[in-house]
Sequence to fold (835 residues):
Amino acid sequence: MIELNDDASTIFTVGQVQSGPPCCDPVPSMQVANVSVRYGTRTVLDQVTLDIYKGCITALIGPSGCGKTSFLSALNRLTDLVPGAHVSGRVLLDGQDVFDPKLDLMALRRRIGMIFQRPNPFPLSIRRNLELPLREHGVRGRQVLAGKIEATLRAVGLWDEVGDRLDSPAMALSGGQQQRLCIARALVLEPDVLLMDEPCSSLDPISSAVVEELILRLRGRYTIVIVTHNLAQARRIANYAAFFWMKERVGKLIEFDGCQQLFDAPKHELTAAYVSGARG
Amino acid sequence: MPLLAASAAAAALILLLVVLFLVREAWPVLGQGGWRKFFLDDAWYPLEGRFGLSPMIWATLAASVGAVLIAAPLGVVSAVFGHFYAGPAVKKLYSMMMALLAGIPSVVYGLWGLTVLVPLIARFEPPGASLLAAIVVLSLMILPTVALTSASALESVPQSLMRGAAALGMTRKGQILGVAVPAARVGIVGGILLALARALGETMAVLMVAGNVVQTPHSIFEPVRVLTANIALEMAYATGTHRAGLFASALLLTALVLLLASVAARIARNPRHG
Amino acid sequence: MASQAGDRAFLAINYLVAALVAGVLLWILADMAWQGVQHLSWEFLTEQPRKSGRAGGIAPILVSTTLILAVAIAAAVPIGLGAAVWLAEYSKQSGQFAAGTRLSLDVLAGVPSIVFGLFGNAFFCVFLGLGFSILSGGLTLACMILPIFIRTCEHGLFAVNNDWRLAAAGLGMSRSSVIWHVLIPAAAPAIVAGLMLGIGRATAETAALIFTSGYVDRMPESLSDSGRALSVHIFDLSMNISGGDKAAYASALVLVVLIVAINVLAVALSDRWLTRRIVTA
Fold:
């Protein structure tokens, strides 16, 4: 449940900002073993193995084209939608095999939410954007829906801004507001894991900072995997970091470690070169 | 989703049904090698078993090609005017007017032709209802189509091409005739072919002004009957082989129109360069 | 310089032709409107025709026309929308069938209207036994407007932002839910525009209706009655009724105004829909 904070000075109400890594329970929420992704004959990602820890923010860093987005799409099986996409390996979510063909895909996507690079609220009203996924997953009753919508909008700090005009078009919101609405749309289903594909990269600096602050406050309550090109951002918010690089035109995981360690004492020379800005 | 697939199937089925039923109705004539009758018989006296379509085929071609010869240059020049010479307000007005005219029903053009054009022609060369009237009315009807398709073909000529021409110090005329129109020629030709197809298939307006006498035209002032008008006129009372003959002529016309349309489509797909 | 003179001459030709074309076409319209207005009156719109239409009004004809259009829309929209959605969203699975469907629709779009009239007569009136009726006419028109309606809807659905499909998938929404709640509303402007285009074409149709919905100019009592459409009425008045010119002009004016109104409505509706979705940078 999302709690409401009485402190009027804070915009966001999802817990206090938890400072410093690692501060959370190093229990794996998702376990990834030897996952490879190929589209047709072209392999974009090869043999990735890492653990995603509960309540922590895991940052996926590395230059463009290394398969980070494909990796993210494999975790919630969005790759199923791409014709010719093949994913091999194993992904466990709290012990359950994600690639099991008998798995209830709708239930999986309720537990794993996704935020995309370009904000993509539906061309409907703000209220409908949040109602639609709830109704889809069986939530009924005007009071119940309205309550969940208000709570979620408060959690992302949009209630004060749009609470009085929930029936106005979502597309009329600013970029930053749209992205926060998309986060709200994912949160309203009360997921365990949030996958974010460069959520701030198409926003202006101020909106970017607002969204980043929100992501920080989600830590602890949600498990977050975030793809980012912004190394400073990764340093600021991530508990764990995974560094990807392209070798022979195939994306590979080079190093996975606690964020602090990866940046300050990288084990691999490529990692050192990338985080220092010498390469990438 | 099965319901959706069923809708798509239903839509696809329509063409099949059309062809099926046309052939079914036309079979009495087609089955006996009737095709040859269309071209070998000397005249159209269906009640006596003579199905010579040649005069009407000539009339159809004469009216349609004549209309295209008038409408194509005028339409293309109108489009050039709209795109290169008119200010934005005039351009918008012009294209709105063309769109409006393209939507006017053919009976309305026919009505005008019948009450204004035919008497006008009759003053010089009676009877007035003639091939010429058909050509004029048809060209009025297809002109907006040519203008609109040429306009959109000109719109899609890349700006960089025009800028390059201007940078070479070409005159406006040179830029348009030498660069823009050739670059847009695929769309323009396609539009003209489509207009020709439309003229061939047009029924009401031509029926109302062409005089409807079955004869091969030797002068543009003579009354003629086109294929479509023939069908419309005689369907009301045709039975048996006569009716079958009309259906067969409809198949012939459809084949011709579709041939044109496919040529236009092929040109659009494979523009010859050079 | 010779090239400058040539340039100026070309410019003059352009203006001349444009003025000529615009002038002639507008003169025709204005002349007809003027003649038509003279015979137009409230009684004209609300009374039955008398003396074969030379006098009286066009009320039953307006009713018949509306009913024919209503039948055409009722038949074309569900089938057309369903087919368009299937083509835009599901055709990847059965590429052959989809290609075949698209081809058949393209071919159908080129068939002349008199041929549709013959088909309608042979299939709806005779084979299905519907006789000369508003139903036959409406269904024939539906066949005519389906190709363009489906093509416009399909393009509208294709153009819908793929981001929305991904977002909906990420939220675990079912395919039909996405189509019904997100994609169709998003493509609504294109769908409405396609429908209006079809209606505009259907209203102008004559040749297809003469042999399917018939000539009867009495007030229709049911869909299986024969009814005369406005375009057919104009045709009858000008060709078969001497002295029917005035009434023909007035009817033509009503028809043109109707078509213009439909087109203006289409543009206004799609504009309104588009402004409701202001996309910010």
Remarks:
- Confidence is low (pLDDT under 50) at residues 277-281 of chain C.
- The two ends of chain C are 50 Å apart (CA to CA).
- Chain C touches chain B through 83 residues (CB under 8 Å).
